[in-house]
Structure formats: C-alpha cells, structure tokens
Amino acid sequence: MNARNMPIDVQTQAKIDLSAALRSASRMGLGEGVCNHFSLAVPGTDDRFYINPHGFHWSEVTPDDIVTVDIAGKVVAGRHTVEPTAFFIHSRIHRGNAKARCVLHTHMPFATALTLLEMGRLEPVSQTAMKFYGKVAYDDQYNGLALDDTEGDRMMKCLGDASVLFLANHGVIVTGESVAYAFDDLYYLERACMAQVLAESTGKRLRPIEPSVAAATVQQMDADRTQSTLHFESLKRLLDRDDTGWRGV
Question: Three-state SS string across 12-43, please?
Fold first, then answer.
C-alpha cells in the first residue's frame, strides 16, 4: 500500500479536498491572482473553518498551507495569515447558513460578467442552467470591499436559503454540503453563464424553457449527486497525474 492509499483522518482529507478544489479552479481559469477564497467547515465543528492563505496563488496551495480560522476570524492553526475580506464573507455565511459547509467565492469571468449587467440574471435557458433553477439569489447592491461584519451579514441575508449568490459588480458565492458538491456547482455555474453570455452576444432572443420543465429537470438532477462526487474524484486523479506534490508532505 503506497502513501496515497493509506487511511486518512477526516480533517486531513478535508484539507486535501480544499486544496484540490483550489488547484483545479486555477487550472480551469476560475481564479484571479491571489484573490478570492475557498472555505470549508472543519469536520465535527460548527465554529471553525479551513481557508486558503493570504498571498498564495491557488495553483501552489497544498494541504499544509490551509489555515484554520474560528468564527470570529482568529487564526487558530496554520503557518500563514488570511486575507481580511475572507473573515467577513466566509465567517458570516458559515455562521448563518447551516447547509453552507463549503463556501466558494470567485470572480470567475462569465459569472462575473452577468453581475456587471443591470439586473443581470442567470436565465433558465440551457440544460446546464437547470441545475440551478430555484437555487440562485442576487445581491444587487455593491458596497465596496467586505471589510466588516455588517457587510458579511448583509451578503448572508441576501443568500438566504439559496446555494448561489450573484454579487453585483463583483463575483459569485457558491455553497454546498461538501467540497465535491460545491465545486461541481461552481464549475457548472460558470459553464451555464458562459453559454448564456455567448448566446446573448449574437443579439438574438434567448429561447425560454417552461417553468414546469425547469422544475422537473432540477429535481432529476438533485435526485442523485453521485456525478458530482465522481467529477471531483476525477479532478484529484488529474492532479495526481499532472501536478506532483500537490498533496504536500
């Protein structure tokens, strides 16, 4: 049995998964410099979360670099610091939404493009967009950088019971019960936004889908999320193949 196949405790596995999400997002062009944050509630806790360190490109983060932060924003474990806005966005959503075990914030290009439009909305016009039918919320007020609890709480309230939040003039937040579920949604959200932006660029009208069909389709997709887990496991295999050392020590 090699080291990769040895039993791993749940907290170590959580850091591995968060690192895999960061590196995979970088490979897909979903990151932006050393900005944006991915976080995950520490398994077995409700008041601590893992998050990527300040100043690191996503393509270089290993599990050993992941920082543990408490709900007040204090670093309780790890050798690095955390970017200030991460405290106020992620901590407030983790605190206010029990289903948001994993919180992914990006400025990925096509999703962000929709946030730049007056009343920009993800329209239910593609099969990929059906994945998000009834799960998206919108924050239509841009207030600058999120540098206090008030702004974090405002975003959390805008998210409500949804799993995706479009932030006006800013980017998106995607939440999920696990890294695999959240990352799968992040990937397909960007694909849905890309298809819509490309379709709208033709100047022709979008072809609508009946609400009843959209509702039935999202139920079909939600009935079995095995595909999300398989997707994420495949990404880790690609990292093992192409990005030696990503798992750290």
Answer: HHHHHHHHHHHHHHHHCCCCECCECEEEEECC
- pLDDT per residue over 158-200, tens digit each? 999 999 999 999 999 999 999 999 999 999 999 999 999 999 9
Three-state DSSP state, 174: strand
Q: Is the pLDDT confidence value at 87 over 80?
A: no
- Going from N- to C-terminal start, the domains of the chain cover 3-242
| CATH code for the structural domain at 3-242 | 3.40.225.10
The confidence score (pLDDT) of residue 2 equals 38
Tally Cβ neighbours within 10 Å of residue 67.
Answer: 22
CA distance 188 to 192: 6
At residue 49, φ and ψ (nearest 5 deg) are -145, 155
CA distances to 87, 94, 112 from 152, in Å: 8, 10, 19
